[in-house]
Amino acid sequence: MMEKLSIQTNFPLGKDELAKIKAKAMRRGIWFKMLTRAERAQMDLTMKIVKRIRSFILAKVVSSIVKKLLDAMESKVAHLTREVGHALAQKLSRIAKKWGNRSADQWAVDSDFIQYLTISYMNTPALFRT
What we know:
This protein has helices at 15-27, 31-34, 37-49, 56-73, 76-98, 111-123. The chain is an all-alpha fold. It has 2 domains: 15-73, no CATH class; 77-128, no CATH class. Helix 5 (76-98) packs across helix 6 (111-123). The longest helix has 23 residues, at 76-98. The termini are far apart. The relative contact order is 0.11.
């Protein structure tokens, strides 16, 4: 069972989950690129000594390191979906709504449409992007 810091931050804070994140980061070559020596040492010591994190201060430190790793491991499509796809879907939805399309409200929350817009954006040459 994964331990949670709070409702706001949902990072796994158990020894096993931290080890899985470290292994994944090492496979992707991010462990040494993204983390400082002190951060790597903090993670290694935490995994070696603590079975489950109970200290709020340690949980804050470890969760910031985990967030850094998870952000670095996020795929390009997922990142662009969050940054570009949602905004494009909302903009197109508003335009279609002004033109009288009643179902256009659903476009802004349709995950398939958002992914389509994201992939289209990725394949559009930089010269033509707005």
